[in-house]
Amino acid sequence: MDKGLYKPRIIDDKVKQYLSAFGAICIEGPKWCGKTWTSGFHSKSEFFVGDPANQFQNRKLAELSTDLILEGENPRLIDEWQEVPLIWDAVRHEVDKRSKKGQFILTGSSTPKRKGIMHSGAGRIGRIRMRPMSLFESGHSSGEISLQKLCQASFTQTLIKAPDLHSITEFIIRGGWPGNQDGTIEDAALLPADYLNAIVEDDMYRTDGIKRDKQRINLLLRSLARNVSTTATNRTLIRDIKDVDDKNIGKDTIADYLDLFERLYLTDNQRPFSSNIRSSIRVKQAEKRHFADPSLAAALLNVTPEKLINDLESLGFLFESLCIRDLKIYAESFGGQLYHYQDYNNNEIDAVIELSDGSWCAFEIKLGASQAEAAGDNLIKINKAIAKGGGKVPLVSCVISGLTNAAYQLENGVYVVPITALGP
């Protein structure tokens, strides 16, 4: 690769840190999110397992002699290691033998089941999750408001140029795929659809060699798209498929497919937050449904900018998923973890960021600027309920907005930040 053409990613600092701490690292995430480019930028030699040249000669070589493919200047990139799972143990063994840091960079766009992998790699191979580009990385957010500083209550009010509704829809449909940032929105919409087709037609079988019902897989994917940014249960998905498509699907089949989607990094759900609030309020334990990128849900729903503008409810759910993607990327860059909150009193917080010291911050996500004040009041109400129940209240409460031209603070102390001004 021409490293002069490399576009910096937020994950770069973490890659450098992990290379200095581990003998090898594994960068995992969906295909086309930039893993190979980022890994190549940080490596000094490369081996591409999936290279189709000479009838996939590299894959055959890796199967015959894993030792041979480890030879090369370090850090050495081994791309798509999961094509030959024995590479994992070979790397772990070589790291032990050399006793040096930063020897190998593995990339993987699926997680094979444990069969054939003898060791977890704990202590030798550090894992890093990579996602498609955030708005800040793609150049659609100024990054004037740092999420890290915001979580420390360091905030400066500022004016920005607010995006219009059409731009928001294009951010969703285009997605954060590095190779999809130029060209018309009509052309950009083709990539997520092709991505999903490749997953269903090829990658699912290659992951574990099991043939599955492609029609049922597509039905489930469409159901997940219809339920994006919600806590829909597996039972809800089954009912949704039956109601909309008049097809029966069993709970075991649903669980198998969802596990496969997760291993292919197709989904990226939002876990529930409860343990560190330490409140007497009962908290639900359902995950919020998200794809790795909101463009995948948009492709499954077959939307265009015009369709979304005429369906503001669907646009709101997809906008929330866009913001969750970015919040995860920004929060993980400084050691934060992203969750959601939902209790049995119908109190919900769209996003919760837990910091390394156990403190947390609360975020509501609203598309329109006119919704910010009501969302801020809702956060204050929930904070009071948590405090009354003996729980720990958030350090910061904030509303992430789409259509606003300023970052400011409401009278109740809640911040309002445009997603197009947010950065790490």
Structure overview:
This protein is an alpha/beta fold and 424 residues long. 42% of the residues lie in helices and 16% in strands. It contains 17 helices and 14 strands. It has helices spanning 12-21, 35-42, 53-64, 66-69, 86-98, 135-138, 147-150, 165-174, 185-188, 190-208, 214-226, 234-245, 251-263, 294-300, 305-309, 312-332, 372-388; strands at 24-28, 45-48, 76-79, 104-108, 125-129, 145-146, 158-159, 337-342, 348-354, 360-368, 396-403, 406-409, 415-418, 422-423. β3 (76-79), α5 (86-98) and β4 form a beta-alpha-beta unit. The longest helix is centred in the last third of the chain and has 21 residues, at 312-332. The two termini are 27 Å apart.
Helix and strand content put the structural class at: alpha/beta
Biggest β-sheet: count, sense, barrel? Answer: 7 strands, mixed
Strand content: 15-25%
Helical content band: 40-55%
Overall spatial form: globular
Distance between the termini: 27 Å
Radius of gyration over C-alpha positions, nearest whole angstrom? 22 Å
Secondary-structure blueprint:
Blueprint: H1 12-21, E1 24-28, H2 35-42, E2 45-48, H3 53-64, H4 66-69, E3 76-79, H5 86-98, E4 104-108, E5 125-129, H6 135-138, E6 145-146, H7 147-150, E7 158-159, H8 165-174, H9 185-188, H10 190-208, H11 214-226, H12 234-245, H13 251-263, H14 294-300, H15 305-309, H16 312-332, E8 337-342, E9 348-354, E10 360-368, H17 372-388, E11 396-403, E12 406-409, E13 415-418, E14 422-423
Parallel strand pairs: 1-4, 1-5, 2-3, 3-4, 6-14, 10-11, 11-13
Antiparallel strand pairs: 7-12, 8-9, 9-10, 12-13
